[in-house]
From TrEMBL:
PANTHER family reported for this sequence: DEVELOPMENTALLY REGULATED GTP-BINDING PROTEIN-RELATED, MITOCHONDRIAL RIBOSOME-ASSOCIATED GTPASE 2
Keyword GTP-binding: yes
Protein name: GTPase obg
Span of domain OBG-type G: 1-130
GO terms for MF: GTP binding; GTPase activity
Secretion signal span: none
Domain OCT: 153-231
Keyword Iron: no
Cross-referenced InterPro entries: G_OBG, GTP-bd, GTP-bd_prot_GTP1/OBG_C_sf, GTP1-OBG_CS, OBG_GTPase, OCT_dom, P-loop_NTPase
Co-factor(s): Mg(2+)
Organism encoding this protein: Amedibacillus dolichus CAG:375
Keywords, alphabetical: Cytoplasm, GTP-binding, Hydrolase, Magnesium, Nucleotide-binding
CDD domains: Obg
Organism taxonomic ancestry: Bacteria, Bacillati, Bacillota, Erysipelotrichia, Erysipelotrichales
Amino acid sequence: MVQVPDGRSFVMADLPGLIEGASQGKGLGHQFLRHIERCRVILHVVDMGANDGRDPLEDYRIINEELANYEYRLMERPQIVLANKMDLEHAEENLKRFKEVYPDVEVFETTTIIAEGLEPVLYRAADLLETTPQFPLYNDEEVDAQAEGVLYKFEPEAPAFEVRNLGNGQWELVGEELERSFKMSKLNNEEDFMRFARKMRKMGIDEALRNAGCQDGDIVCICDIEFEFID
């Protein structure tokens, strides 16, 4: 259990370094990779010191390649990189190369001895967990089908939410992903409600309500809880 200084907490699964071929079961690859299926955010600890002759860029490429080979949907999950051992001789040079090759990857830095820079990455991980829904790789039907050798056709995923117009300025939001996110959110005070409102905005709910004709002051219902729509 990781405790964030602002009072939030989350569970972190520590996966040992994966070797090339782990997705095919090399070493203990499958045992380690099974743990990551339940993780919503992936944090890579990359050795930028590379004092044993390893290349940080190659390490990162191999691990992501093994994740994709094991299950390509793992690559849809948010990733953060913690650049470790930044107090070693070649770390700055390696980090510069890393950012040039992976400019879109979010990177935080820490040192070997005094572990500076860990607090910001904890805050970032907690923020991502608040906005990243759970998305299991498999469901029971898929597992049963694989066991029995039954082939199912691909069906597109259901939308995250649906807007329903109940009339007289009343609206309802339904959807498995939205309702799961709502039930997982702690709504004990105004700050909690504001955080959930930001999450809804990122999901595109505000825009969907406007497009459907929802106006300022209308009532929006989620899981039998009513909110006033403020545009």
